Amino acid sequence: MRRSRKAQRTRTVLVAGGAGFLGSHLCEALFRDDYRVICVDNFLTGRIENITSLIGRSRFRLIEQDICNPLELGEPVDRIFNLACAASPPRYQADPVHTTRTCVIGTLNLLELAVRDGARFLQASTSEIYGDPEQHPQREDYLGHVNCTGPRACYDEGKRTAETLCFDYLRADMADVRVARIFNTYGPRMDPADGRIVSNLVMQALEKRPLTIFGDGRQTRSFCYVTDLVEGLLRLMDIEPNPRQPINLGNPGEFTILDLAGLVRELTGTRSPVKFLPLPEDDPRRRRPDIARARSLLGWSPKVPLRQGLLQTVVYFSDLGNGATEPVAATNGSGANGFEPGARHNPDATRVLYTEGEHPTEILVGSDNPRHGERSRAVEAISQGHRADGGRANRRLPATIVHHVSRMLRQPDDDASPTRRGRQHPRAGS
Questions:
Q1: What pLDDT is stored for residue 340 in this prediction?
Q2: CA torsion 49→19→103→105, rounded to 10°?
Q3: By C-alpha distance, which of 352, 364, 361, 373 is closest to 393?
Q4: Which residues are known catalytic residues?
Q5: N or C: which end of the chain has fewer CB within 10 A?
Q6: pLDDT, tens digit, for every residue of 229-239?
Q7: Per-residue DSSP letters for 176-208?
Q8: For the whole model, what pTM was predicted?
């Protein structure tokens, strides 16, 4: 269990890539834990909309800068999370030289900052360092099967070199460094145009376009919901003593791409056909993390089943298509949105809230002042397009989402994946 920081002095943490999909959720979690948060982002793939809930807060500072240039903060930091770098193949292949520079020079700059300030450092590495693996599932001691000259090498080898730097600094006792190898992560605030498989399929389904699948769709992936992943990062940063070895963070539930496409079609109600395209060079055939080390050392395992997390992701993308002005955060397990009165948020955003129990128990539609209610009232509210606080929602959710949320509210999740259930993080608040 992570230790609360409420009783300690305010510490300062730097999040490189803090305006990105994963980084923005991490910034909010840190802010909620009473850290002073410095977000550094060059906005190549990050979006200002992801951090609007934090802008203007007294403990939040935004710096627009590329980490390939040394940072001059004018203040010391206690911890550094390095999440900077485009993570989807289309984005990191668009400027492969810059991708490699970000992984290597950018990481080196942040490591030097950690040395100068005596800060603890966490490197967000990736499952891509395993390449197209010949070991399944992938353990941290697997050395990988990577094409060092292919189109994915800028990212794969860049991240491998970044790990080399991290462990060199650690072995030399220059910095307290931890390394997380992150597997496929999804959830609210994914960029709808970044080319990742979840965002691709959901957007195509909502827009009634053909669902594009590369290869025959039998290749497998494991999908970890964003709140689970953030919890893993926080635990790895907190753990004492330093593990001094990389740790896989991901959901060991394994699905084919065809499985994922089928679930997207079911949740969105689309009749869009599947369109098969040639498999890209070096695309991995199988991906599944072995998380025994994370379970043992961190006491961590993912809680959110794919169906539940994917439903929230569908709702998020549906909101974007209906003109929502601020991305909706992944919600927590308590039914609260984490904001005190006066906090900035979108009162008309559709929210799907879950408890810590065995299955979801409540949904709020466009709630400005969330209130807990009985399941029957929640189901009726969503089906009729009412807000759960008694007001009128600005729109109705698609009928298929209503159906699946209602079913999930009434019975335990029947997901065939071996994923687990549990709490999620709320949005950040003062």
A1: 28
A2: 110
A3: 364
A4: 155
A5: N
A6: 999 999 999 99
A7: EEEEEEE--EE-TT--TTS--HHHHHHHHHHTT
A8: 0.76
